[in-house]
């Protein structure tokens, strides 16, 4: 059994002026051979995009990409014809498949957009690109782990073409949540904000827990905690 904590300050960091980004795994100019991904989870970038700035049109291929907005709004436009605004609470999934072009922008003149960009390795390649976006309220996530992405779209989650499930939760005070784990798989807990106890280990904002060989996940003693939990192929 193993639970390894990766502290927030251990992540890679890039400041481009218009974009400030923390990298949980090797990405762009940040390279750490000890942190190339975890299972089939390849990227978690915590991005802050300045007002009136954004990512110009660029391409992706054979990757499942999830955007999870924390504050502000993210404007999305892609070569499939989707033009969407992603507010906090929405989960956006884009399957890049055999190739897609898109841009992401913060059109607000006076507000930073703060979001998580998540990449998961697909279990099928060369498929037609596709897009999906769903909203999950605070009540959906309060005091529990709400499934927000899965291979089969269970419980109204967005569907990813990957052997992975993603849960989101809000925990404070006496609220607790548990999740049965397959010891043969890997899990990753990313604490978006606040404080939280994960299987008896304390995490703070930006910290993560890399887990394998465990059969149970227990989350407790949260202080305004927002958490993402990944169930991943080993």
Largest sheet: 9 strands, mixed
Query: Radius of gyration over alpha carbons?
Result: 17 Å
| Helix-strand pattern | EEEEEEEEEEEEHEEEEEEEE
Total count of strands: 20
Query: What amount of the residues lies in strands?
Result: over 45%
Organism: Variovorax defluvii
Protein name: Pirin family protein
Pfam families: Pirin, Pirin_C_2
Family: Belongs to the pirin family.
Set out the fold topology.
Blueprint: E1 2-6, E2 12-15, E3 19-23, E4 41-49, E5 54-60, E6 64-71, E7 74-78, E8 83-86, E9 90-95, E10 100-105, E11 113-120, E12 130-135, H1 138-141, E13 145-150, E14 158-159, E15 164-173, E16 177-180, E17 186-198, E18 201-204, E19 208-212, E20 216-232
In short:
2% of the residues lie in helices and 57% in strands. With 234 residues, the chain is mostly beta strands.
Structure write-up:
The chain is mainly beta and 234 residues long. The protein contains 1 helix and 20 strands. The strands form 3 sheets. Strands 1, 13, 14, 15, 16, 17, 18, 19 and 20 form a 9-stranded mixed β-sheet that branches. Strands 2-3-4-11-6-9-12 form a 7-stranded antiparallel β-sheet, with no helix packed on it. The protein has a 4-stranded antiparallel β-sheet with strand order 5-10-7-8, with no helix packed on it. β2 and β3 form a beta hairpin. The two termini are 14 Å apart.
Provide the descriptors you would attach to this structure in a database record.
20 strands; mainly beta; nine-stranded mixed beta sheet; seven-stranded antiparallel beta sheet
